[in-house]
Amino acid sequence: VATGFLTDTTVCIGCKACEVACKQWNQLPADGYEFTGDSYDNTKQLSGTTWRHVAFIENPKKRRLTGDVDLVALAEDVTEPLPGGAELDALGRWAFMSDVCKHCVAAPCQQACPTGSIIRNEFDNVYIQPDICNGCGYCVPACPYGVITQVPHDGRAFKCTLCYDRQRGGLEPACAKACPTESIQFGEVEELKAIAEQRVQELHGKGYSRAYVWGTPEVGGTGGINGNHAKFILMDEPETYNLPRHPYLPQEKVKGGVIASAVAAGVLSAVVAFAFRG
Amino acid sequence: MSLVDPRRLWEKVRSHIGTTVEHPLSPATRDLKARIHNPGVKKTVSVCPYCAVGCSTLVYHRDGRIIDIEGNPDSPVNAGTLCPKDSANFGLHVSPYQRCVFQILKRHFSRYTPEMVEKVTGCPKEAFLEVAKTICENSGRERTMAFCYAVGWTQHSKGVQVIRTAAILQLLLGNIGRPGGGILALRGHATIQGSTDIATLYDILPGYIPMPDVNKKHHAWRDYVENETAETGWWNNLPKYATSQMKAWYGEAFDPEEGQLFDRFPRISGDHSYYPTLLDMKDGEVKGCFVFGQNLAVGGPHAKLARDALRSLDWLVVLDAYEIETTDVWKLDGVDPGECPTEVFFIPSALVAEKDGSLTQTQRMLQWHDKAVEPPDDARSDAWFVYHLGRRIKELYKETEEDRDALIRALTWDYPTGGPYDEPEIESILKEISGYRTDTWEPVGGFAELEADGSTACGCWIYSGVYAGGVNHARDRKPASEQDLVASGWGWAWPDNRRILYNRASADPEGKPWSERKKYVWWDEEQQRWTGSQGLLQAGQPVQPARGPALSVRGHDLPPHRAPHLRGDEPLDPLALRAPARVVLRDQPRAGRREGRQQRRLGDHHDQPRQHPHHRPPLPLGTQRRRERGRGQRHPARRAGSQRRHPRGQGLHRRPRSRSRMSGVGHKMFRVSKDPAAPFEEIRRRATEGR
User: Fold this and answer.
1) H helices within B186-250, ranges in order?
2) Considering CB atoms only, which of A116, A131, A166 is closest to B27?
């Protein structure tokens, strides 16, 4: 059976318990306390030492309120026209998204890995075997989401294992266990898919008409990736959350590159042959 | 058969571009399991203490070591979830990066290995270990150990750090406040402890009361007192001591409430210590100098500078029993006496057996000495000279109405005199130092009786009580055989005749002596009071805990100790950019100096035209980088061989400046060279020739 995550960003409170729990269980080193200067989030991004990252999407659009605004209505619903005819040229709020490895159905990192270190394990998760990885780093540019990096001073690439060790013992991953709002849910992919659709319907019923599931073969699982085992319920454009709408496998670009090179080689050969003819 | 089987190759290639090939599991992957499922792991139900919610947690541990902490799914409160605070609880328990002071110190000192000692200091490892072993074997409950240092530490370029290190070591080893422990300075100057207590230093008044400073908020008496009074600790009493001091000096003229007279009190305006004062003499900014009990011309570092400085004065008064080099500077070093502008007065002074007085030794003990015979011929005591000088000055200023002379007019200078030469009575000075009540003139019993309302006068609060009861306790001479271990009846030690400071530490936290052999003070259960030898903490004295500045560490660590500034490398901190050693500049910031002075340094004196044949130029002190140089900027790479430039040597290379400025200081400068290494070549050449 395939297992995965469903991360419901609509209930995420940005507490970063998942980040901390992940670091504790996997014994990952700290990344330093650095203030980015443009966000309250100081983790910045996923990396070889940060396998969960709660992204703070602050002020996704520049917002300015004019007129007599009902703030309660504003808090409850950000997309509908405001009562009382208040004019709203742009609306703002914070969004949180606990980012993680997407565990692609057809994982580009695995296809790029020349050593056979990256495997699909019995839970159909993408897993880097650290004792095989030789630190070549091919997986790093292959990942369309920027999840994997090499760890400095070690050289090897690391990423979310979906707590492979815990799953073997029948335990849920550390982040999902810690999450106080159940924004992160762990389970079988098919079940999660049903839960996600049900949740989106529920949100639509409440008027949040922009809610959708990201990570399906239609959105966020396109380009040969065929969907992700880690899905997200989003309320805005994927780009707002720094996620690609249409990720693709790196080899998608190979065919065009090879053809262009072949054409260029042919043309150059012809030119040379012409120049040195007879 | 070809070496490469095309079919196998294709399979290989195919395996790398698709997902159809199942890669084998590695051994580690095969054996992977959650560490909390390892055999022998125990589970303890605990609770998160970090807020009022009370999330239940599961602590997994094996062999006494915690291996994981996570939420308890059975809990009705948190159902297995945790917030980031308790999610981090595991790391909090096991982190190697704990930031408590002990951990910081542990990391800090881990680099100071015996091998590093040998590398840095040149002291053989075996010798170091022998000293360390001796120190440790003689510290503990039954034994104590004292550091007794002389000028080898005091005058070391890093003396402060060395002595401070010894203090830390003594605290760690439990050698403070116990008989036989402590750190004892055995400096070589005449009554040097007493001179420091009664303030020969420019930045303190007697009793370590801060000297008023133009750069601090010391505009008026209230400003001064409020700014210098500590919030906690014994220095909270500063107003009592400062007021009593002013009353001792100026009597009725000083109003303890408003303190108008304080407006006329001199302020320091910068560094007026030994070197800067010599440099100021040389610059003609100090016109005259009194020299008591010191031989500047040979006694201090850079004696050549001292002689040049003394020869730049208008007048020089030297009090000594014999003619010394300082009295003879006008004819030393081949100087033509006709060229020396300094008028030198030599005042023959009395020696110790020819005058009354006291000496304070390293244990802070005052011992009185009585005059045995009158001094010969014209010789007089230093006190006689100062008293009569003051008396004559007061006489000169008696008629003046100028406000600026108020201090001289107000000065209490009414010591009784006697004997064939009108010697002032030294005991009357001691009485003033010890303190008295301004209404009854009765001597006070100690500094605890001093008040800030002007009802008491005291010349030096730490010495208060030496004249308690009208008895000169510095003259106490109870033989050692007739009294206790610390001989409290011989002489008098400040404060309050306590022979061992911080003596509460001679008993454990419960008040029991650490050992029978070394007991000093202890808590008497029957009488419910502290008891023991003399010199106890006085009952009823509120001892507020002093509050020091918070420990401020950048990142996780303390900065390592750095090598002296002339060393080429810093083995303990290879990345260090600046040595912390003090640099004596010629232009300390101070008020009233003419602006725009260029920096000149001690090294400037190296190219004096005449040099003693045995003169070896001291190494340059100029190590301060120019201010405009960015902090953290690295020196350019070193040069090889003889061209190698000292990595700290930038200081002597100075900007080319305009010719008019150059002429102001003239030949006393290094020539400005395009090659920054040139001054060092110059020094090296001189050093070689001088030798």
Assistant:
1) 192-197, 221-228, 238-250
2) A131
Mind telling me how many Å the CA of A60 is from chain B's nearest CA? 25
Radius of gyration for the alpha carbons in chain A, expressed in angstroms and rounded: 22
Instruction: Work out the average pLDDT over A60-88.
Output: 51
Cα gap B618→B606, rounded to integer Å: 8
On chain A, the residues whose CB falls within 8 A of the CB of B70 are 21, 25, 174, 177-178
Contact A19 B84 (CB under 8 A): yes
Structure tokens at A254: 């190979």
Instruction: Classify the C-alpha dihedral B359-B363-B364-B367 as positive or negative.
Output: negative
> Is the distance from CB of B249 to CB of B266 less than 8 angstroms?
no
The tens digit of pLDDT for each residue in B248-281 reads: 999 999 998 888 899 999 999 888 888 889 989 9
Does this model's pTM top 0.90? My answer is no
A129 to B37: CB separation less than 8 angstroms, yes or no? no
> Using CB atoms, which residue from A129, A130, A169 is nearest to B34?
A169
ipTM comes to 0.84
Span A125-156, pLDDT tens digits: 999 999 899 999 999 999 999 999 998 878 89
Tens of pLDDT along A222-237?
888 889 999 999 988 8
pLDDT score for B46: 92
Cβ within 8 Å, pair B87-A116: no
In whole angstroms, what is the distance from residue A186 CA to residue A3 CA? 7
Check A178 against B16: CB less than 8 A apart.
Answer: no
Measured between CA atoms, the residue of chain A closest to residue B17 is: A111
Answer yes or no: do A110 and B24 touch at CB < 8 A.
Answer: no
The answer to whether the Cβ–Cβ distance between B29 and A174 falls below 8 Å is no
- What tokens appear for B581 in the block? 């050693």
Please list the residues that pair with A7 across neighbouring strands: A184, A232
| Closest approach of B61 to chain A, Cα-based (Å) | 14
Cα A125 to Cα A141: distance, rounded to the nearest angstrom: 20
Cβ separation of A24 and B25 shorter than 8 Å?
no
| Alpha-carbon gap, residue B490 to B483, rounded angstroms | 9
Mean pLDDT by 10 residues, chain B (691 residues): 74 63 82 91 91 90 89 90 91 71 75 86 92 94 93 83 90 91 84 86 93 91 92 88 95 90 91 88 92 88 89 94 92 88 93 91 90 90 95 93 91 92 93 94 93 94 94 91 83 88 85 88 83 52 42 53 52 50 44 35 39 44 39 41 40 41 37 48 61 43
Contact at CB, B26 and A106, closer than 8 angstroms: no
Q: Which residue has the tokens 């200023």?
A: B397
Which region, left, alpha or beta, applies to residue A183 given φ > 0 means left and ψ of -120 to 50 means alpha? alpha
Contact between chains at B68 and A251 (C-beta distance less than 8 A): no
B109 CA: distance to closest CA in chain A (Å)? 24
In terms of Cα–Cα distance, which of B604, B609, B602 is closest to B333? Answer: B609
Note the pLDDT tens digit of each residue in B520-569: 888 888 888 888 765 444 433 334 444 444 444 444 556 666 555 444 45
**Distance, CA of B273 to CA of B201 (rounded, Å):** 7
Q: With an 8 Å Cβ cutoff, are B90 and A24 in contact?
A: yes
Whole-angstrom distance, CA of residue B11 vs CA of residue B376: 116
- Compare CB distances from A168 to B34, B71, B78 and report the shortest one's residue: B34
Nearest by CB: A25 against B33, B68, B83: B68
Instruction: Please give the interface size between A and B, counted as residue pairs whose CB atoms are below 8 Å apart.
Output: 91
Residue B57: name the closest of B44, B76, B38, B40 by CA: B44
H or E element in which residue B93 lies: helix B89-94
Q: Does B555 touch chain A (CB under 8 A)?
A: no
